[in-house]
Amino acid sequence: MKKTFTLLFLITAGFINAQAFIGKGDIKFDIAANIQNGGSGIRISNDYGLGENISMGILTSYLLTVSEDELGNKPDFGDRIDLKARFNANLGNVFDFNEKLDIYPGLDLGLRNFGAHFGLRYFFTEGFGLVSEIGFPIAKYKPEATGFDRLNNQFTFNIGASFNLQ
To answer: Which region is the signal sequence (predicted)?
Structure first.
């Protein structure tokens, strides 16, 4: 009962003073679970606010668990990792949402494809929140990708923690 009360108190206190996207100079660091067809892993991203509603960043993901192919082969390091530059339009304040919530569509350019993403962040306190994001390729570098080339070249779902470093 004490743990429940303490958790409810911390969540309530967090709702009082949280802010999702401040604007220019705002720095967000996310760590999330990456879930996709054929594997799951970890994703780390960092976004930097360039203006009131614009941010740019970098993202890397690494697949920890991957299904074997038909021949029983496992992918090597290069098949599991991806790196992307990203651009976001932070729209939480444009739509006059609660200042703790930010939604952001964006584009990314990675080692495997040019893609798009849509995400949301909800901050419980000024420094800690949750993030959820979906991503999908628009133009694949290998349109007829087979085998492990498809791993980081498909629809992804990510959920995790977000930290405001400003």
So the answer is: 1-20
